[in-house]
Amino acid sequence: MNAETAEWLKSNDSKEYFELLRIPTVSSQLTDHLRDLVSCATWLRAWLRSIGAEAELVLPQGAAASGGCVVPVVFGELKRAEGAPTVLVYGHYDVQPPDPIEKWASNPFEPTVKGDRVYCRGAQDDKGQFFSFFCGLREYLANGKPINLKFVLEGQEECGSETLFKLLEDRAFRQKIVADTLLVCDTSAAADLRPAIVAGLRGVNHFTVTLSAANRDLHSGEYGGIAPNAAQGMAELMASLHNPDGSIAVSGFRDGIIAPTHEELSAAEAGLMDAAGYAKDIGTEPCGGQRGKSIAQRNAFEPTIEVNGLHSGYGGPGSKTVIPCEAIAKLSTRLVPGQSPKLAYEAVKRHLKDHCPKGMSVELGELTGEAPGFRLPLSSPLFALAADLLREIDSRGAVFQWDGASIPVVSALREATGAAPLLVGWGQSEDCIHSPNESYSVRQFLRSREWAMKILGGLAE
C-alpha cells in the first residue's frame, strides 16, 4: 500500500464510500434486493442533504399501486445564485449481480483494499465513479464560485431505468430537472488513465429468447435421432445471426445507420488501444465483429448482436443423458445513430422466427433498454472547455472516445432537460466491471475528485 492510499483510508471520503458499497443494490433481482435499493436511495438523500441540498425520493404517480416502477429516483437541488449556470449530475446506485460468487477473491459486498485498489461490486460502476465526483463537488462547494446544482441518481440503470423513464414522461418532473449542462461520470478514461471525453454512446436493447421443443426432457437413448434437441436448435439459431465474416445477417437490422465522419473516425482511432493492447487486456485476439473493419469501427460505430448467456439441459457434474426440451438465450444489441431500437428489435425477432428449427417454437420477451445511440459534435464549446481543464489535470491532454457501451437514459435526459451532455469518466479495463473482482483504484478516485472541482469551477466562470 502506498502513502497516498494510506492517507486516503483515513479520510471521511473513504468511510462514506465503503458504507455506500456495502449496500447490495442488485436491481435485476428486485425480489431479494428492493429493500436494499430503497435503503441506498435513503442514504444518498441524507448525503445530499448533508451538503445543503434539498433532496427527495421520487416515484411516478401510482407506481406502488401498479406494482411497477418501485425503485426510487433520488432527486436533489442546491440553489446557490440567481442567474448562475445550472448543472445536472446523473449517476446510478444500482449494480450488476455478483455472480459467479465463487470467482470472487473476497466478499463482493465488503470493500476490500489490496494495494491501491478497492475490490467490491459497484467499486467502479457506478458508485465509485459518481461518489468520487461527489466528494470533489463537496469540496468545491466549500471554496468555489456559486453554481446551481441538480442531482438525479437512479437505481435501475443496469436493468432498463424503468422508474426514470416513466418519470421523464411527467411534465412536472421534466421541468424540475431543466439544466444548462448534464454531467455524467460513468465512462472510461483511455489507457493509463489518460483523460477521455466521450463524444457518443451506442444505444441498446436486451431481451430473452426461449426455444421450446418436446413437452419434457427426454432420454437421449430412447429418443435420440427422433426428438428435436432444443440445445442444438438454439446453437443453430444463434449462429444464424451472423455471416461467416462476422457481419450481421439479420435483414433490416442495419437500416438507417449514420456513418461516422472522417474526423470522428480518425479521433476514435487515436484514442483506442491497438490490437496487441486488447490481446493483452482480454487474453485472446480481438477478432470479434466483422472482418476487415478496424477496432474503432467495430467498437464505436458499428452495431452488434451479442449472446450474453445460453442455458439448456444439464450442466452439473458428471453426465445426465437427456435431450433438452427448452433452451434460453440472453441477447443484447448495441445500436448506433440512425437505428431505431424498435425496428432493430423487430428485425431480430422476425429473423429468429423465420430461422426457428423444425419441430420447435421461439418466443422473445423481457425487452429492456430500447435506447438509441447518439453522437455529439466535436466542435462543442463544452468539449473545448473540458479539454482545457483536463490538460490542467494531465499534461497529455484528453482524447475523444465513442463508447461502445450504453447508458440508455442519457439520450432521454438530454432531450428532457435541454442540457448539453459532458461524459468524462475514469474507468479502466482492469476494473473488471460486470465481472467478479470489480475494483477501483485510489488514483482513479482522486482523479475523479479533482475533475469535479475543475469542471464545476470552469462552468461557474
Work out the helicity level. Answer: 25-40%
CATH architecture of the largest domain: 3-Layer(aba) Sandwich
Which structural class best describes the helix and strand composition? alpha+beta
How does the major sheet shape up?
6 strands, mixed
The rough form would be described as: globular
Which runs of at least 5 residues are low in confidence (pLDDT < 50)? none
Output the radius of gyration: 23 Å
Detailed description of the structure:
Helix 5 packs across helix 15. This protein has 15 helices and 18 strands. Strand 4 and strand 5 form a beta hairpin. The two termini are 38 Å apart. It has helices spanning 3-8, 12-21, 30-50, 63-66, 127-143, 162-167, 171-176, 230-239, 262-271, 275-282, 295-301, 341-354, 381-393, 409-417, 442-460, and strands spanning 54-58, 73-78, 86-92, 112-114, 117-119, 148-154, 181-184, 196-201, 203-212, 218-219, 304-312, 322-323, 326-335, 361-371, 374-375, 399-403, 420-423, 439-441.
